[in-house]
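Cross-check.
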Amino acid sequence: MAEAPAVSLRPVARPSRAAPRRAPSAAALIEKARLSGQVGFAVAEAETGRVLEAHDEATGLPPASVLKALTALYALDILGPDYRFTTRLMATGVLDDGVLRGDLILAGGGDPTLDTRALARLAEGMKAAGMTALDGRFLVWGGAVPFKRAIDENQPEHVGYNPSLSGLSLNFNRVHFEWKRAGGKYDVSMDARAGRYRPDVTVAQMRIADRRGPVYGYEDEGGRDEWSVARGALGSGGARWLPVRKPELYAAEVFATLARSNGIDIGKAEIIDDLPEGGGVFVTHHSAPLDAVLRDMLEYSTNITAELVGMTATAEREGRARPMEASAQAMGMWASEALGMTGADLRDHSGLSDRSRMTASGTARGLARAHDAGFLRPLLREHRMRDATGRLDPDHPVKVLAKTGTLYFVSGLAGYFRTPKGADLTFAIFTASDSLRDRIDPSRDERPPGARAWNRRAKDLQQALIERWSVVHGEAHAGLEPVPGADLQDEVLSR
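Predicted model, tokenized:
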């Protein structure tokens, strides 16, 4: 037993930390996700747009709020990052000993961020200019953006993220509904609160109804929004934001209240379709710069901001205001021309409509085309990856800047990520089940059965795909030829 072996043993290398990791196939990850419906994805080299890996990449799928990233690029290209929305207080007459002899006009400029505090500053500016009374009409104009009753008519009537669109929009076109129970009765209020201001409104009214359901009801009463709520759903108290369907009258009522608080009675407003000639600017309010507006839009995924920004960009580009759907189609044409993006068939600018469609390859390549311009990445929020236990991991080696998108049975993620080895990649992942969405009843209040679990699996798939790409395509890709396509405008590329 002490003799040496007749044949030498083959040496076996010790395990090395440098040994390549094995990544599961994309097909295996998709099968594991158990998503009924379609999955489309593409990952590309950020500097050239060359697609490195893809699946069902040419199929148009609903992008949901991922579309807002494209809207941000569109607005920045057409309007520029320093653009500011302007809301004007105009006058057709002259001040005579404090009395305005003529009409006073509140003219919206499509500002999606206009709030009650801004209107209060306009009212204070009117007083500071020396006005004490109005001998004429109080007019309101919202024609900078064509009116639309709701962004998507297939959404439940009462959801605050689906308000009306107008060139004069206040508090994201939402009204604050609050209720308190005392002595067996409810105290109900409807107001336009922002900061320390809480003016009550009558253009939106609430009635408590003795019914089992639905929770909310809505009737258009011409000059006001008439809401009702089921008594049994109220409990002891609470609050929520409801959409406004009379945006010009809503803003006008709030401004008139603020004017009275400054000692000026301007009366009841009248809506006009066109601005009268010869009106002079009395007081002006400017929004924050566009890049700040877009940063908040991408972080909070504000639908009305995306729509008003996109429609304003189209009006600037084409020289006239266009309805929402026509403007969205114009944005799709711009994406093809400026970004070389293929497969964009758009119906809105926010992604709230599931009729908007984008392809994974077109989106990934378009984001790569915008990479050199450098103005989208700073606006995107970091998308935190999760650790093995499912918890958000701030120290995860893969760093992702992206825009998410979620509807019931629709989930999307697109943006940029850097691998631990320094490769900069763009990507787009779209998942959707049209068959499950067809079963949704928009009049019901509760989440459709199975929606939460479906969307959770979709998000798990997104992380798994990014981790796979980090391993398989983690090395920097050098020497690749740029994909053909039109550049962004010279002024954008120079920023």
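The CA atoms of residues 122 and 283 lie 6 Å apart. Residues 451-472 form the longest helix (22 residues). Passed to J.P. for a second look.
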